[in-house]
Amino acid sequence: MRSIPPVLPMAYAALLACATLSAGVVPLTMMANSAEAATLRTMTTLHGPRVKLSDLFDDAGTNADHVLGPGPAPGGRIVVESAQLAAIARQFEVDWHPASNADRSVLDWPGKALSREAALAALREAVAASGVRPEDCEIALASFSPPTVPFDSAPHPLVSQLDFDRASGRFSAVLSVTGDGVEPINTRITGRVDELIELPVATARLPAGTVLRAEDVHMARVRAALADREVARQPADAIGLQLRHQVAAGQPLVLSDLAHPEVVRRGADVMMLLDSPGIVLTAQGKAMDAGAVGERIRVMNPVSRAVIEADVIGADRVRVSPGGLPLMATARADNSNGQVVVQ
Fold it and tell me: What is the secondary structure of 10-23 as a DSSP string?
């Protein structure tokens, strides 16, 4: 029988290693490498404007906190594809290799819209600095597109570069939003500021012809622009007067639309009175116009068909001036005061 030549120690060790592998035993060096391998993070929620290596890989090693660059804006996302992930892993010595071209990492930074009220609060402070008290004005934003801020942040809005035309009420400004860990967000805003004044207004819709009572009027703050004409300044300026036109609820009361209540209706029979020293003449007439006390209307004598002007002095009563047209009447003596009364 031939003897088997002796095997060199190193060759034997190699053979043992091969045998060990064939038996399914993993060498210690391979176990160590497997334990240190990084894991791809397929979905990451960011909490700031920067992307770190650890946002892409778990167990990224000593460079885990290295900042790779800016992330998405609040409310946005970016997708890092397989090839870029592999390049980043090689550059920063991360033990990771793509399993396929479909590997990717999605980075989200949740956001929320800045509330309109928060923007208005900052705007009120800026308007107050310009000399208009916030409680004495009404602010409206035109086509406001709220900036998106990080969802878990406490934003601090500030208005600057305010250009306010007090005559027209129009303004433009820059709305800046800052916060912890948030890059400043600047947005241009426009709108108008309406100054408010306190005036008596209609409590409800009032039709034409309404004689105003105390409950029909109340004091309220309204836009100063609504008082561009002469309006009642106190309820007493309007109560007891009659509306010439319909008034909507909440509207100021324009003085030219107010009149004393009509006590003579158009077409009504009226008593015409001519009062001269020593003589009082009365006659029946027909009102050609409606009128309130103190107003001058036209009155027709139904007998002569003559039309004269007369001043309304009461309910269905008018006074004719001594220089008016003669009245058709019959005379009687008033023995009580020595005057002659013509009827």
Answer: HHHHHHHHHHHHHT
Half-sphere exposure of 299 (CA within 13 A, CB side): 32
What domain range includes position 94?
A: 31-109
- Give me 183's structure tokens: 């890059």
Domain count, the chain: 4
Whether residue 273 sits in one domain with residue 323: yes
Q: Which of 79, 109, 139 is the last residue of a domain?
A: 109
Mean pLDDT by 10 residues, the chain (343 residues): 36 30 36 63 93 96 94 93 96 94 96 92 91 87 89 90 90 90 86 92 94 95 84 94 93 92 92 84 92 90 88 93 56 44 42
Q: How far apart are CA 124 and CA 136, in angstroms?
A: 11
CB atoms within 10 A of CB 58: 12
- The CA distances from residue 32 to 22, 37, 90, 326, in Å, are 19, 9, 19, 130
